Amino acid sequence: MERRGRAPVLIVLLLAVVAIALTRSLHVIDAGEVGVKLRLGKVDKEELYPGVHIVLPWIESVVIFSTRVEKIDMTTKTRNPITALSIEGLPVRLDVTVLYRIVPQKADEIYKNYGVDFAEKVIISIVRETVRNVIARYKIEDLYSTKRAELQKTIYDELKKRLLTAHIQVVDLLLRDVRLPKKVVEKIEEKLRAKEEAEKMKFVIEKERLEAERKITEARGIAESNRIIANSLSEKYLQWYYLQTLKELANSPNNTFVITPYDNKLIPMLNVNKGNGTK
């Protein structure tokens, strides 16, 4: 009787064990994830991609990695900005954001070499080192204004190469802020203002030079025009023009007009073709 009473209990226990085993043997990998299978602690080279997978309960386990784009902020707000030195040895503080994702086909290598906390062990340290190496090649003035975009691209290119060796893809790098010491900023701004004033003065001088050249050219044109006109005033032309003028004045409604002096040939005495000092 006791054996018969125990049988149902054993069957229930057996079914429970089977159910647990079946439950543990089925593993679902969601979209945006990749799984690394461990068999008795040893990493399997075949990654598990989205879908349902069968694993051996208590022998195999699965570690999940995200394949989505992730973000790391290294800023003052997150209390871990990057400090570096310029080529002159002056301190610079930078706020940087890195967008990255792992190479899904290399998830097993990432787990084997760095574990699940690879971001702390690899990405952050390499980002700091890369930023510091790049900043050391720039002058402090370039970091303040003119070469900010170039600096960001240089950091991105070098970081992308380095992290790819760790099977991590850099999607983008955002240089959010570059802060310099207050006294350095004041000196740079003073230098920029002086440069702007020098450029402004250079523009004014050039404008005045061009205006002077224009006036000289205009004066030469007027002088040449007067010379041509003076040379074209012959005696016969002046006699004819004088008589024509008298005729027009005589026929005009004006009662008063002025007649200029003339010689015995009816040529107006206008000092034509004579120097300024001759009377």
UniProtKB/TrEMBL annotation:
Family annotation (Pfam families): Band_7
- Output the superkingdom of the source species: Bacteria
UniProt domain Band: residue ranges: 24-192
Q: Which GO terms describe its cellular component?
A: membrane
What topology does it adopt in the membrane? Single-pass membrane protein
Which compartments is it annotated to reside in?
Membrane
Give the protein name, as stated in the record.
SPFH domain-containing protein
Where does this protein come from, organism-wise?
A: Phorcysia thermohydrogeniphila
